[in-house]
Amino acid sequence: MRTLIFLLHILFCVSAFSYGQYNIKENNVWVFGSNAGIDFNYNPPKLITTISNSFEGCSSVCDSNGKLLFFSDGYSASDSTGTVFPNAQNDLTTFHGTYYNPSSCTQASLIIPVIGNKSQYYLFSLEGADFTTTSSRLFYSIVDMTLNHSLGDIVPGKKAMLFDTGLTEKMIAIPSNDCGIWLLVHTKQNDTFKAYKIDNSGIRTAPVRSIAGVPSALYSYGEGVMKISPDRSRLIVCSAEAFNSLNGSSLTTNGTGAELFDFDPNTGIVSNLIVLIQKRTCYGAEFSPDNKKVYISSMDSLDHPFTAFVSQFDLSLGNSQSIINSRVDFNTSAQYCSDLRLGPDRKIYGTNVNNAPNGDSMNIIYQPNLKGNLCQFTRNALAFDSGTTGTYGLPNMYVKPLCIQDVPTEAKPTQTFYIYPNPGNGSFTIDQNVATNQSVQLEVLRSDGRVVYRASKQFSGQKISFEMPGALPGLYLIRLSTNDKWYSLKLVIN
Q1: What would the pLDDT profile of 148-188 be if each residue is shown by its tens digit?
Q2: One-character DSSP codes across 292-361
Q3: What is the residue range of 439's domain?
Q4: What is the CATH number of the domain that holds 432?
Q5: pTM of the predicted model, to two decimals?
Q6: CA 52 to CA 351: how far, in whole Å?
Q7: Residue 407 belongs to some domain of the structure
C-alpha cells in the first residue's frame, strides 16, 4: 500500500482551492462607505465606525490574525488607526481634469501581496471613467508595513506608477494554479479582458488577452463589478452602460447588463459567454459559497424613479437557457443597486441604497447556496451605526497565492486522514486515526479547481469508501469537512 499524505490547514490554502478565500482572516474587516465597516472577528459580525470616505470601490486587508492593517479608496490609503499614510496624501493616481477621481470608480482599489515579501503589498488604483470615450488608467504603489513605526506607508519612489490605460472600472485578483495571482481587468468599448500574472518575480507586463463578450454601446463595460466564483471557474461581469446616473435617462436600450463566462486559472483565459441579463443596469454581483448560484444587483434603466432588484441564477442547471430561465428576483425596495460581497460567515452582504449615494442599512442573503426564497434574502437586516452610511461599493476581496505545503510532523493535529490506494484507478478508501461515526462532506477537485465529485459520507469506525469510475489520470485534491474543520489530501489517479 502506498499512502501519500498531504494534510493542509483550511486557512492556508485548502479553502482557496475549492471555496476561494473569502473566509481567510485577511478578509475579516471591511472598511467602506462613509465611516462604515464590518468586523467579522465577532460572531455575529459587528458594524464598526471607521475613518472612511469611499463613494464606490475600496479595499482593506488584515493580518493573518484578522487585525486590520490598512485600507484605501484608490486615491489615498490609511493605516489601521484611520490616519492617512504620510506618503499617500490623495495622490495614488495622477488624477487630472479629463479623468475621474478613483473614489467614483466601481472597483477603484485592490490589494495584492508582494509574493516573497510578507511585509509588502501591491496597492492598485483604478481611475473612474465617464459615459463617453474617457477610459480608466491603472496605477500601482507598494505598501511596506515595516515603515511608519510598523503602521505602514508607501515605499518612497514606488507610488502612483502608471501600469495600464484604456480600461473600464473593473479590477479583481484571482489565484492562479502555480503560486501566482492573476490581475484581471477589462478594456473599454470592446470585448477584451487582460490577465496580468503576478508571481515571485514581480508583475509581468505582458497580459494574457481574451476576446469575449458583447460590447453594445458607447460606454460598454464601463461601470459595474467583475467577480470570480470561489472555485475560480466562473466569472460574472456587470455593466451599467444602459443608464446615465446624472439625469436618469437611458443611453441605450440594447445594453448588455450581466454576462457569465468560464475562467481558466491555469491560463488566465476568459471564454464561453452566457448573457444573463439584458436592458437593465447591472452593478453588483456575487457567487454563492458552493459556486452553484450567482446573485446580481440591478435596476431598470428605463424607469425613474428606479427600482432595484437582486436576482438569483442557478448555475447547476448546465445549459445556458436553463440558467437564464432560473432567474428569481428579490425586490430591495431601494431605488439604487449596490455591490454584493460574500462574507467570511458564508452570507452575502449588500448596501440598501435608498437615498443615493447613501444607504442606512445592509441587505443580507443568509443562505446563498439555497434556491429561490430559501436563500433568505432579507432587506434592511443590519442597520449602520449613527454617523455612518454605506454607499454603492464594498471592498475588493484580498487573495493570496495557492502554494501547497506539507504540515510539519511536529505540528500534526489530533485527527489525521489517509487515502489509499494512492496512486489508484477509481476506487478509494479514506482512513482516520480515530474511530468515529461522524458524518463528513467529501469533495474531489481537479488541479484547476473544478469539483468532479461531491458526496456526504459517514465513517463506519475508521473508514469510508468512494468510487470515481472513469476519472481521468492526473493530480486531484480531496477536501473533507468535519466538525467545522477542513482537511485536504492529495490524490493521484493513474
Answers
A1: 999 999 999 999 999 999 999 999 999 998 889 999 999 98
A2: SEEEEEEE-TT-SS--EEEEEEEGGG-SHHHHHHT-EEEE-S-SB---EEE-TTS-EEEE-BSBTTBBSE
A3: 413-493
A4: 2.60.40.1930
A5: 0.79
A6: 15
A7: no
